[in-house]
Structures are given as structure tokens and as C-alpha cells.
UniProtKB/TrEMBL annotation:
Higher taxonomy: Bacteria, Bacillati, Actinomycetota, Actinomycetes, Bifidobacteriales
Alphabetical list of PROSITE patterns matching this protein: PROKAR_LIPOPROTEIN
UniProt keyword annotations, A-Z: Signal, Sugar transport, Transport
Name of the protein in its database record: ABC-type sugar transport system, periplasmic component
Signal peptide start and end residues: 1-18
Length: 188
């Protein structure tokens, strides 16, 4: 009887870990300081950044060029020339979640009362899959800040801006970072 109880407890513990997401924080924003035991993280050639585009295709092009220059894979879903950009963006998040990319970057997100549930559902799916989400130049981010690890604001004129490829690697590797990061599309 004890053996059966032990097996059931073990199965319950293992199954509960499968759906594990950080409590009260976003995936990719779970550390306030470096861990005591260092880890390597994902190698840059293995990183896949799922980019969900915005109305501003010039910004999207800058981002995609920066990832290309850094030899990073960045599949892109455009939301520019579609009938329902929010629906296309949310479906894009779901597609990237199924694809199990390293991180999802949503450009120019503008959450309104009318589409809040759609965004929450799409971003919750990424969260539950353990995929961090970064908002690039957000207009109105989701209210629930556990749905995204950070916001990136592009400023190529800021000498202190973090190169985009380095900032995204910090999120993917779950290293400490501010909630808002000024980034540059100029790759170092």
C-alpha cells in the first residue's frame, strides 16, 4: 500500500511540474539576481525569435535586419496588410507558441478593452508553454504583467542602449534585467 501511495505522490509531483510557470512573474523574468550556480543558456545559433509585426513595417524591418546581422533566426508574421491585425497578431503568437520558439517578440502591441481577452488568451498560451514574451515599442501593454518578461524601446541614438541581440539573449537565458530596456538595432 505504501508503495502505491509513493508512486501516486511521485506521479502527482511530476505532473504538477509539467505545467509549471513562475508564480507572480512572467516567464523570462524570474530572477532578481544571478543564480548561485551558473548555467550556459541557449547558444545563439539555436535561438529562434518569433517576431509578430506591427503597423510600422519600417520598425519591423530594422528589427529583422538586426537579428539577421546577429545571425539569429527570426521568423516573422506580418500584421500590416490584413483585415484584422489583432486577430492576425494573436494567431501569430499562437503559431509561434506551437512552433516552440525561444522567445516571442510582439511589436507595437496596443491592447484595448475590445481585444483584451484575445490578447490575454494568446499570451497566456505562450506563458503556459514556458515561452517568454517581449513587447517591442508597446502602445498599450496588457494589464497583467505576468504575460510579458520585458518591454523593449528602440533608440538607436542612445549610446547606452543595449544591442537588440544581447537584450533578447538576456531574456531567453532568464538573466536579471529591467522591465523596460532601451535597445539599439545596431548590432555590436
Amino acid at each position: 500500500m505504501r508503495r502505491i501511495a509513493a508512486i501516486l505522490c511521485t506521479l502527482a509531483a511530476v505532473s504538477s511540474l509539467a505545467g509549471c510557470v513562475p508564480q507572480g512573474k512572467a516567464v523570462g523574468d524570474t530572477q532578481e539576481r544571478e543564480p548561485a550556480v551558473a548555467h550556459e543558456g541557449i547558444e545563439q545559433p539555436d535561438m529562434i525569435i518569433g517576431v509578430i509585426g506591427s503597423k510600422d513595417t519600417d520598425v519591423d524591418a530594422l528589427v529583422l535586419d538586426a537579428f539577421h546581422d546577429a545571425d539569429l533566426q527570426a521568423p516573422y508574421i506580418s500584421t500590416n496588410a490584413v483585415t484584422d491585425p489583432v486577430k492576425a497578431a494573436c494567431q501569430g503568437v499562437e503559431t509561434m507558441t506551437v512552433r516552440k520558439v525561444s522567445v516571442i517578440m510582439v511589436s507595437g502591441i496596443d491592447v484595448t478593452d475590445a481585444d483584451r481577452d484575445d490578447w490575454d488568451m494568446a499570451l497566456t498560451g505562450a506563458r503556459e508553454a514556458g515561452i517568454p514574451v517581449v513587447l517591442l515599442n508597446p502602445v498599450h501593454p496588457p494589464i497583467d504583467d505576468t504575460l510579458f518578461a520585458a518591454t523593449f524601446v528602440i533608440n538607436d541614438r542612445d549610446a547606452e542602449a543595449t544591442p537588440l541581440n544581447e537584450a533578447i539573449a538576456t531574456i531567453i537565458d532568464d538573466k536579471p534585467h529591467p522591465r523596460q530596456v532601451t535597445v539599439s538595432t545596431i548590432v555590436s
